[in-house]
Amino acid sequence: MQRLKYGIKNSRIWHLCSIDIEVNKSITLDNWTRYRAEFREIYYLNDIHKFLEVDHFNSIFKFFKSNLRQSNIEDFRKYFKDYLNYKEVKVY
After folding, report:
1. Bridge partners, 87 (sequence order)
2. Residue 3 CB neighbour total at 10 angstroms
3. DSSP tag of 82
4. CA angle 72, 20, 56 (to 5 degrees)
5. What is the Cα–Cα distance from 71 to 74, expressed in whole angstroms?
6. Residue 79: DSSP 8-state
7. Which single residue of 19, 24, 31, 41 has CA 20 to 30 Å from 56?
8. Separation CA 57–CA 67 (nearest Å)
């Protein structure tokens, strides 16, 4: 499996990140929601707390402070950093 090649243990994260959705639409899987705009995607926890923003135009992503499990953060990080070769930007 491709997700295991990149060390992503949670298959729901792979599915959430890779499923094709139209611009200005969203998808919710468990308690994660992904909103898609033209070049940007924003991920929310319980549809309230923004925990991840992905800028596809500049190939960067950044995490925000949230109560997301560290193992899930690492799987999201592996997807965008290792699979898509995006650069992580630290939020201070």
Report:
1. 60
2. 19
3. I
4. 70
5. 5
6. I
7. 31
8. 27
**What are 47's two structure tokens?**
């549809």
| CB atoms near residue 90 (< 10 Å) | 6
- For residue 25 the two structure tokens come to 């639409």
The residue type at 88: E
**Could you say which DSSP state residue 54 is in?**
E
List of residues 6+ apart from 74 with CB closer than 8 A: none
At 83, list the tokens: 């699979």
Q: Tens digit of pLDDT per residue, the chain (92 long)?
A: 688 889 999 999 999 999 999 999 999 998 999 999 999 999 999 999 999 999 999 999 999 999 999 999 999 999 999 999 999 999 86
The residue with tokens 């243990």 is 9
